[in-house]
Amino acid sequence: MPHITFVPSEPGHHRVRFDGSEPPSPRTGTHHHHRTKTHHEKTARRVEPPDFRFCVELGLVIRSRKRDHKAVTGLQDEISDHLTRAGIANHVASSSRAAVNPREWTIASEVCIPSHPRDHRFGMKLVSPFMRFSKRAEAWQADIRTVLRTLNAHFELTTSHQCFTHIHIVPATGYWELDQAKGLAKSALYFERCLDELVPPYRRKSVWAKSNRNNFYFLTSTMPECFAIIDAQTTFEGLGARMNWTSAASPTGRALGAQPGADFQHDAFRWSFVGLNEGSGFGTVAFRQPPGSTSASEVIGWVMLVGCLARLSCGAGGGLKPEQKPQLKSLGEWLLYEAEWCAMPHKSPLKDLLKQAVSVTPVPGTIAGMDADVITIDEDQRLKWKINDRNLALDKYRRLITA
Q1: In terms of pTM, does the model score above 0.85?
Q2: CATH 3.30.70 residue ranges in the chain?
Q3: 296 or 98, which is more confident?
Q4: What are the Basic residues biased-composition ranges (predicted)?
């Protein structure tokens, strides 16, 4: 999985693990050995991948511990007040036109999560600022801990099948290079079944997080053929279409009223590349499969997984062998190695996330992650509502790059 290339040896240029050893092989657990090249002395080293900016969306059902709010606006204001007192810069997105600040947390209602006003519980989302993944890791981890500690102290946080933890990422430069996006797309397809082992069963068949692997373009293809399809793309729009293509005849398509044969892109997949339709590499890629998170450790673990996987996927040199079956154990070793490589503090959340893995046994005659045969009336309606819902993460991204 790591990206290795041969470059001329320079003093102080070769990096090794913090314990002084070479990184373990992702498949055998053995150590790589450098070999001397003729003509020019060259050593094997990993080319440093890009750093990333990320934004987290937390979708939860929230109720105040002390006040019985009859409307979501009162709950939003109380959340904002407590976060402000805790030193967390924030604002409420009270309308579709309210300005959002990419350097503050945003509080808003969430249309895909059912609310229960009689019980004073409301579907909410909190959207983080855009933060640097590896350059300021201590800062963002502390920020997330403060937010979740404050929320749990003053509010009851619960989750439903519609709740989520979405992680949006973009290279720190503010835009993607096409090869970087292709590298992440390959990892998304290749490791899909591995990542399925880390989420509850309902997030493996959610209408909000469908399979990228089992869509129109990739369903009947082998993994090497899937990689070839990705390699053949010459535009970000083409890549997004392959990763997020939705059939008009699917339950999602029918719910959204698509005309027969009018297939379309939709973001409700495990990995959404629809954000790259911003053009010229601008936009975010979002990992949408994780369930709702009520603790800082859960949120940090998912951010670390996505950030480390993106770094491994987007570094120079490739490295995946599509003809081989992926293993979560090997992936986990390389994610933890990547966290160590970029000096990520407090790696226990990632370790705990990997430990909770449960093997997925496919039901005979079914295809994992395909759009459900039928969706509920409630899901049908919420898919329609979501079309007109504001994408706060992308709004923040646009303001970030134009600031």
Answers
A1: yes
A2: 52-168+390-402
A3: 296
A4: 29-43
